[in-house]
Design a protein that fits this description.
This protein has about 400 residues and is mostly helical. The protein is built from 13 helices and ten strands. It has a three-stranded antiparallel β-sheet, with no helix packed on it. The protein has a three-stranded antiparallel β-sheet with strand order 4-6-5. The chain has a two-stranded antiparallel sheet with strand order 7-8.
Length: about 400
């Protein structure tokens, strides 16, 4: 037997729709399913169904609804609806209730070992929805539960979109996100997802237009500016920040809604047809050799030290470093980080705070946990972190 609350309230057995009654009877079933395994008092049932104004005959009417539901539920011996002291208890396997399955899948996705697995679980969870939750039922309590369930659905959709962006589905997401953002113009997280999808699809100007659209809406409707995360994304798009490129996907262990322990693979593309520099590559390889076990021969650090490649402009320092980094990337299982500080670009160089924030994001730190760098109001004092009391 299967119970559906994520849409019209239904009872199904072996693919067949069973009679759950009309109106109040389905409301009784919904309340008991949302409190699965818990005794719900008669008073609470009446208040939740009749908005605190039950008719004088409410107890008799409720008893009739319960009796008819028992007949429908008798098709599954694993399901029971029983009278307990002061109320009623509906017992069933949580897997039989779509709300419970939805929540379980969302929880599993948050702890999934890969982006692909997490996305599949969220798609399965969202596939359980067949319309507005508790469709057709009305009371203040049921309306509140419907709103809460819709918020859970929205969070799952946003989480799935984040995963799809990580998996490179930005082209497919643009039209979908544009429709969603148009319907919810104050949702800054949604606006940020759309801006990122547009930017990765080669539509930088359109991404900037959506930021301006969101900014104006927030100013007109709420008298507020976009939050720090959306403003930071706007600045990254303006300067074409390479950190907005596709992050790695796959084997990233998760904790909650953030990615913990992700493995960044940020090396720039290797130079095609790289030749020569054999002596320099060999010298770089020596940096990774462990000390000789017998004490003979030259000793080298067991761990790589910070090193620099020097030479006149245009001789291929960057090409050498990038080529060597690709050759030995397999030896650094925790990943590789890269930042272009843009020291010689016409635009503003990347600040230390922006570079650090990009590294933290790549390593799986949630955006809300990364403090924003602020310029101190006192001249000459540089930058400070709000978390440090600046």
């Amino acid at each position: 037997m299967e119970f559906r609350l994520l849409g019209p309230v239904e009872i199904r057995a072996e693919g067949q729709l069973l009679d759950a009654g009309h109106g109040r009877q389905r409301a009784v079933l919904a309340v008991l399913l949302l409190e699965l395994g818990q005794v719900v008092s008669v008073e609470a049932l009446n208040e939740r169904i009749w908005d605190h104004e039950p008719p004088a005959s409410a107890r008799n009417v409720l008893s009739g609804h319960v009796a008819r539901l028992k007949v429908a539920l008798a098709a599954d011996p694993g399901v029971s609806l029983s009278r307990r002291a002061g109320g009623y208890l509906l017992a069933a396997d949580p897997e039989q209730v779509d709300v419970s399955r939805f929540r379980a899948l969302v929880t599993q996705a948050a702890a999934a070992a890969s982006d692909e697995r997490a996305a599949a679980q969220l798609r399965e969870a969202l596939g359980l929805w067949h319309g507005p939750a508790l469709a057709g039922l009305r009371s203040r309590w049921l309306d509140g539960m419907r709103d809460a369930l819709e918020r859970e659905r929205t969070r799952a959709v946003l989480a799935l979109t984040d995963l799809r962006l990580r998996l490179g589905e930005h082209h497919a997401l643009v039209a979908e996100l544009a429709a969603q953002a148009g319907a919810a113009p104050a949702d800054e997280r949604l606006a940020g997802q759309l801006m990122l999808a547009l930017y990765r699809s080669g539509q930088q100007a359109e991404a900037l237009r959506w930021f301006e659209h969101t900014r104006l809406h927030l100013a007109d409707e709420l008298g507020a500016d976009p939050g720090p995360q959306l403003r930071a994304l706007h600045q990254q798009i303006l300067r074409g920040d390479p950190l907005l490129g596709l992050p790695p996907s796959g084997s990233a262990a998760r904790s909650g809604n953030s990615v913990a322990g992700s493995v960044p693979r940020q090396l720039p593309a290797d130079v095609a047809g790289f030749t020569g520099r054999a002596a320099e590559l060999a010298a770089l390889d020596l940096l990774l050799l462990p000390p000789p076990s017998d004490g003979s021969g030259p000793r080298h650090a067991a761990a790589a030290v910070i090193s620099a490649v020097s030479g006149t402009a245009g001789v291929g320092k960057t090409a050498l470093a990038v080529h060597w980094a690709h050759q030995i990337a397999h030896r650094f299982g925790d990943g590789q980080l890269y930042v272009n500080l843009r020291g010689y670009d016409a635009g503003r160089p990347v600040t230390a705070a922006d570079a650090l924030a990009g590294f933290l994001r790549a390593l799986g730190v949630p955006g809300q946990d990364i403090p924003l760098a602020k310029t101190s109001a006192r001249p000459g004092t540089g930058a400070c972190w709000p978390a440090r009391g600046c």
